[in-house]
Amino acid sequence: MISNKTIDYYNENAKDFVQGTISVDFTKVQHKFIDKLEKGDYILDFGCGSGRDTKYFIDNGFKVDAIDGSEELCKLASDYTGINVKHMYFQQLSVIDKYNGIWACSSILHLKYKELVRVIEKMNLALKQNGIIYTSFKYGDFEGERNGRYFTDMTEISFKKLVENIKDLKIEEYWITSDVRPGRGEEKWLNLILRKI
């Protein structure tokens, strides 16, 4: 479970968080993801935050389910996207063989390391054969509380170790980027695309 403190942070700061992320230009990564899918494919936005990416995927012809652990963010994202964003925690994902793609942008990084494997296994089960996952983590080896939230940072080596026992899930590609938010360019992110084979 994401710590209550992290959920509380997003509930208390929902409006500010949305303002800081909703208009960020993330099209480069969004395109990298949807270029691996077919129009009309089914996407799960897993921890959708403001709803920015959900709206982008809908506008580009995809069917989208969106969830978030913060009730306040669910309300704001529902208003923004025009779909019902479901209040749900990552550990509650229980569907099988439903999605062509799962988008977990800066979201599952709030789980503790030991919880990440179980959640990624659930994500893998929720994917159709040949489906893909996009996920991102702050780059590094820190785990713990930072700025009022819990974070598990990752490097390509630590993430490879994390998923090595999930037999039918492979790292298709990874790349490192700078934070796209104004004034945050010195922060590095690990981006990954995984494929269910």
Written description of the protein model:
The protein has 197 residues and is α/β, with parallel strands linked by helices. Helix content is 34%, strand content 29%. It has 7 helices and 9 strands. Strands 3-2-1-4-5-9-8 form a 7-stranded mixed sheet, with helices on both faces. The chain is globular and about 40 Å long. The mean pLDDT is 95.
Keywords, separated by commas or semicolons:
two-stranded antiparallel ribbon, alpha/beta, Rossmann fold
In short:
By secondary structure, the protein is an alpha/beta fold.
Counting structural domains, the number is: 1
> Under CATH, the topology is which?
Rossmann fold
Q: What is the correct CATH architecture?
A: 3-Layer(aba) Sandwich
**Global shape:** globular
Q: Kindly report how far apart the N and C termini lie.
A: 28 Å
User: What is the subunit organization of this protein?
Assistant: single chain
